Structures are given as structure tokens and as C-alpha cells.
Amino acid sequence: MSVEVGPVPGSERLVSRRNILGATAALAGAAAASAAAGDTLAEVPAREPGSSLSAHGERSQFVKLARLPEAGPGVRNVDPTDAINSKTPIGDLVGTITPTDLHYERSHSGVPDIDPAKHRLLIHGLVDRARVLTLADLRAMPSVSRTTFLECTGNGWENWKHADPTLTVQNTHGLVSTNEWTGIPLTYLADLVGRRSESLWMLAEGGDAAGVARSIPLTDEIMREAMIAFGQNGEPLRPAQGYPIRLIVPGCEGNVNIKWLRRLKFGDGPWMTRWETARYTQLMADGRARQFQLRMDTNSVITSPSGMMQIHPGYQRITGLAWSGHGRIDRVDVSVDGGRSWLRATLDAPVLPKAQARFGFDWMWDGSPATIVSRSTDERGNIQPSRQQLIDKVGTNALFHFNGQQTWAVDTSGRVRNVLA
Description:
Blueprint: H1 17-38, E1 68-72, E2 75-76, E3 85-87, E4 105-106, E5 121-125, E6 131-133, H2 135-139, E7 144-151, H3 169-173, E8 176-185, H4 186-193, E9 201-206, E10 213-217, H5 220-225, E11 227-232, E12 235-236, E13 246-248, E14 261-267, H6 274-279, E15 282-283, E16 289-290, E17 299-304, E18 314-323, E19 329-335, E20 343-344, E21 346-347, E22 357-365, E23 370-378, H7 387-394, E24 407-410, E25 416-419
Parallel strand pairs: 5-14
Antiparallel strand pairs: 1-2, 1-3, 3-4, 5-6, 7-8, 8-11, 9-10, 9-14, 11-12, 11-13, 15-16, 17-18, 18-22, 19-20, 19-23, 21-22, 23-24, 24-25
């Protein structure tokens, strides 16, 4: 059960500003004492010549970051050839931009090796001038860049029915990433081919062997924000992200952002492809299936401390990520008592619409059992539901669009584990 945000009478676990200042002073004092004890840099390794410059930057040998291939919910440690997705290590990252090589991956028939010189984009249907465009044609057009998140509809599905206590935040929420994308606005191409007024839907088709294709309603919001991207974080798209071109529809589920894009067709209704009749539908509690649930709802997760981490009594900096397909994150609240009381977290700038935002919260852990959870609210007033509120609304038949609050339990030894709330 949730209550209004406010101070917690008698709580010793929620930190006041005075407590924080005291804790900060104590930490500074401990650091000063350590420095005084050392007094010199004698124990610091000596300077030495570095390695030669190179054409490609690599991470430090002391930094270990990797995605995690999975074959389905709970099917981990698999051979990459059996994997259907690969999850981002969000518990090990800082800021909000996902490194290009660590952006989550989801494909239905592997990653095609497409020669950009031979690739084409066909735009036809209810238009006045059908066109076939090369990559060079697209690169010669006016482009825009935008930072936005992409999220697989299956993100969070691990906790829909039960909680595995051994899960990390990479397991539970590793199918969301934020990048800067560069490409041609959809409106520019629609004007180029003379999109007709009766054209209210668009079919986007990929060049992969699975032939993934989705019908997209051409709302004013989508027409204003969608782009055909050829750039990712300042470089050409990576093959796993749709090289040479992909569709970007900010705020919509990942599979709509068609990779290896080869065809756009304008029409007056949805095409009812197998991906929207047999795959990406939501089985509701009453047995009916919901189609075209395209927008990703308000979500957040604490990334540290999180599943399988170990903490010690004293000052803790709780941090995590929040995002919404409706727009900008307005606030994030954090609870350390399982949602009985909440306090407002701080948001690190910049906070961009339809992009992940980094939040932080100061906490003095006294060593007693605690359950920590975050709750986000976006600029349109959408509040992230508790897991039970989500289940009360849609049941447990569904597999996609899980945005319930994520709860981590901390026991007296400082072990952090995944639990249901």
C-alpha cells in the first residue's frame, strides 16, 4: 500500500538534510584521516610509460562490461546462437547514455550482413510519387539528432509471476537503452513522396530473414517525432541495431522501431501482420487479446544497490534510471520500507523527453532489514504502478509491458535480493 510523500515519524533510516551533511562530513573526515595516515604517495604505483596510441579506443583492463545473452524468461547462460536477446548491464553504467556496443539487442532471425551499396528503401502505397532511395540519397537529405530510449516489450517480464532471488538488475531490466539517433525526419520523406490525406497508417518492413513488419498509426505525435536513422551515438548504426538504416519512433515499443528497414508503405488501415496478430499482443485476464499497445509506460528501477549486490551499514547513495514513453520524467520517489512511505529523489540534468533520467537518493542504512523501491511520475501525471496494481489491471496472462515497481530486499548481512511486493 502506498501513502502520500512526506516525512516518516520516528524513522531512522530516512536521511534528513542535517543527517546527510553529517554523513558527508564524517566521510570527508575519514578520507582526511586516511590521507594524514599515508602522508605521502610512496605507496602509489610509480609513473611509467604508457602503451602506443591506436586507431580504436578500448576500455581499461580494470573495467569489465558485457551484455548478457538470454534465450527467454529465466533461460540464461546459453550459447549465443540460441539467444533471442542480449541485455544491457545497467547496474554497471553511469549517466544516461548507453555505450553503443552495450545497447540491448533483440532479433528474430539473427543479424543480417547488409551491403549498404546494394540496400534500398522503397516508399509507396497511398502516395503520389513512389520512390526507391539509396543510402547515399538519404545521407544527402537534411537530418536531425535526438536522444531517446528504446525498450523491448519483454523488459521486466521476469517478475510478472514469481521472483527469482538470484536475479540482477541486468536480468530484470536490461532490455532498455538510451542513445542519440541521427536520421531523416519521417515528415520529410512523407512530403517527398506526396503522402495522401487518406493515408493514416504506415507499414514498416525490415530486411531480416524473419521479415518483421509492423503497422504504425500516423498520429500527429508520431509524424512529428519519427525518423529513419542511419547514425547512433555519432557513428553509423551497428549491425545489431539495424545497419544501414532503421526506423525510430520515440516512446513506442522496441519492435516497432524496425531494423534493417527496406520498405515503408502508406495506407488507410493496419496490415494485421503476424507480428501484430500472433506475437506482439497482450493476453488479458478475461482471455481477450489487446493489439497495438505501442506506447511504453512510465517506469523506473533502482540500479544500485540492486540484486546480488552487497552493502554495509552507513551512508548509501541509492541511484537508478527512470523513463516514460509519454514524455519527460517529472519526479522519482524512493521508499526504503517497501512502499509504506516515500521521499523525493533528485534528478540529474539533463532530463529529456522520452529518454532515461538518472535519479539519486541519500540513505543512511542502520543494518536492519529494508526493502527499497522507486516510483516514477512523468510530465503527463502518469505514475508507475506497484506490481499488484498492474496485476489488478491486466492479470498475469500477459507477457509484455511490465512496468510495475521493482523491489529489492536488504537483509541484516547487507545482501540485496530480488523480491515481489
